[in-house]
Specification:
Strand 12, helix 9 (242-254) and strand 13 (259-263) form a beta-alpha-beta unit. Helices cover 38% and strands 22% of the residues. The longest helix has 21 residues, at 110-130. By secondary structure, the chain is an alpha/beta fold. The termini are far apart. The protein folds into two domains: 4-264 and 467-483, Aldehyde Dehydrogenase, Chain A, domain 1, CATH 3.40.605; 269-455, Aldehyde Dehydrogenase, Chain A, domain 2 (3-Layer(aba) Sandwich). It binds 1,4-dihydronicotinamide adenine dinucleotide and magnesium ion (MG).
């Protein structure tokens, strides 16, 4: 099978790389296998890409190690920054193509996909700016010493990303790692390998030396597991399910104790208090759960509404949710496309069935949308109780629950009654209430009167079982540097 293929999308035609990207070349996998990626809009295969497994990971790690000790080491910090900003420019140059790839392979609306491209370019440019501003301290212990710290790259980094934001997760991961001088073996998600391979081509075009970024398309249990267990990978960064996060941490512990950062699931509360601007709150609540078809780790899936506005809220929220445009990702008006895969579709539909069976009231939705593709209606459940599975577990689809609370205290208690702690929001016009509630909630991000407004300058990550470490902002740089202390004894003669 060839290494490139012309792909036609409803928007444009482009050249799709299909190989694994190792040492700046597209190559076939050692086992010679390929796998198909599916268009979730029509359930048909788009192309087959080459599949990487353990042996390919080994080859990629060797390439990354030799780049780390060789050419990449000689590249100055400001030149690293220049390469990252150049890559950002190329993403923007190719925004139409990249957005079309995301719409085709992931199913997100092409207008939303353009937002992902812009945010990815912004993230890379932001970390490009950091590259020559990574430094330690000088520490004055006594007159006979000179002590200083160096922030050195951790080394070869394994990065495993999911399918919900294929391009954006790629950018979040490589930005801080490259700014700080590491090299990378990236495994993209098997559902959405196409944008990562396209960016690999841009990485070469931008002028990164061979081996600095290697991209493996492949499956979790083979290529992903090989990264987590590898003896010559110094750090692994993972975004995905809590279940797999635990396995990665175990593999890291059982192998070489590689550093681990995890960005996992959530069941984030979105609190609406009686003094909220209800119209505005509903806009954010709607975006909070239905953006990206509910396939967001920080989705505001548990909506907690004060009893004083509960009935009014349900009436307006139902109306708003029913206005969301569901359909073809290539329609520029589309807000909600199909779920990414049959597996995710089935998983979400089984949660919906479970919710109905448990006696939750369907306010709107609750069924598939249309007859082809993995489309699900925006679904709101109300009159739920805390013990229901749909209230406890991450659904990762366009499905939310609305719960009635009687006070601010109860809202906080219910909000925190979860093993997760990724994000939360509170809607109120009282500044004191806003800050009191934000402080009381155990979550990595709290939005006040907004939702899902992530930004590459702001750290993002989880309390409790939602993860370890922070991505984005200057905080992410810490995951990718080892601090070395050098103490020099000064001779007195
Ligand atoms: P997953 O956690 O299995 O997949 C995420 C990534 O991990 C993919 O690249 C996959 O190939 C890789 N992976 C899978 N098993 C692995 C292993 N044993 N070792 C190393 N890497 C492995 O998630 P999946 O099955 O795609 O989705 C299941 C659920 O996970 C979703 O319904 C959702 O609740 C959650 N999820 C959360 C995401 C987030 O952004 N936090 C993203 C994707 C899924
Ligand atoms: Mg796909």
């Amino acid at each position: 099978m060839s290494l490139f293929q012309t792909v036609q999308t409803p928007a444009l035609t482009y050249e799709q790389p299909l190989g694994l990207f190792i040492n700046n070349e597209f190559v076939k996998g050692v086992e010679g296998k390929t796998f198909e990626t599916i268009n979730p809009h029509n359930e048909k295969p788009i192309v087959a890409v080459h599949e990487g497994a353990e042996e390919d990971v080994n080859i990629a790690v060797k390439a990354a190690r030799s780049a780390l000790n060789g050419e990449w080491k000689q590249v100055t910090p400001s030149e690293r920054g220049r390469l990252l900003t150049r890559l950002a420019d190329f993403l923007e140059r190719d925004i139409e193509t990249l957005a079309a790839i995301e719409a085709l392979d992931n199913g997100k609306g092409v207008t939303m996909a353009k937002g992902d491209v812009t945010a990815s370019a912004g993230c890379l440019r932001y970390y490009g700016g950091w590259a020559d501003k990574i430094y330690g301290q000088t520490i004055d212990t006594d007159t006979n010493s000179l002590t200083y710290t160096r922030h050195e790259p951790v080394g070869v980094c394994g990065q495993i990303i999911p399918w919900n934001f294929p391009l954006l997760m790629f950018a979040w991961k490589i930005g801080p790692a490259l700014a700080t001088g590491n090299t990378i073996v990236m495994k993209t998600a098997e559902q959405t390998p196409l944008s990562g391979l396209y960016v690999a081509k841009l990485i070469k075009e931008a002028g990164f030396p061979p081996g600095v970024v290697n991209v493996i398309s492949g499956f979790g249990r083979t290529a992903g597991a090989a990264i987590a267990a590898h003896m010559d990978i110094d750090k692994v960064a993972f975004t995905g399910s809590t279940l797999v996060g635990r396995q990665i941490m175990k593999s890291a512990a059982d192998s070489n104790l590689k550093k681990v950062t995890l960005e996992l699931g959530g069941k984030s509360p979105n609190i609406v208090l009686p003094d909220a601007n209800l119209e505005e709150a509903i806009e954010w609540v709607n975006l909070g759960i239905f953006f990206n078809h509910g396939q967001c780790c920080c989705a505001g899936s548990r909506i907690l509404v004060h009893e004083a506005v509960y009935e009014k809220f349900l009436e307006l929220f139902k109306k708003r949710a029913e206005q969301n445009k569901v359909g073809d990702p290539f329609n520029t008006e589309t807000f909600q496309g199909p779920q990414v895969s049959q597996i995710q579709y089935d998983r979400i539909m089984s949660y919906i069935k479970d919710g109905k069976g448990a006696g939750a009231k369907v306010i709107t939705g609750g069924d598939r949308h249309g007859s082809e593709g993995y489309y699900i209606q925006p679904t709101i459940f109300a009159d739920v109780t805390e013990d229901m599975t749909i209230v406890k577990e991450e659904i990762f689809g366009p499905v939310c629950t609305v719960q009635k609370v009687r006070s601010e205290e109860e809202a906080i208690k219910v909000a925190n009654d979860t093993n997760y702690g990724l994000a939360a929001a509170v809607h109120t016009t009282n500044i004191n209430t806003a800050i009191r509630v934000s402080n009381a909630i155990k979550a990595g991000t709290v939005w006040v009167n907004n939702y899902n407004t992530l930004h590459y300058q702001m750290p993002f990550g989880g309390f409790k079982e939602s993860g370890i470490g922070r991505e984005l902002g200057s905080y992410a740089l810490e995951n990718y540097t080892e601090v070395k202390t050098v103490r020099v004894h000064l001779s007195q003669s």
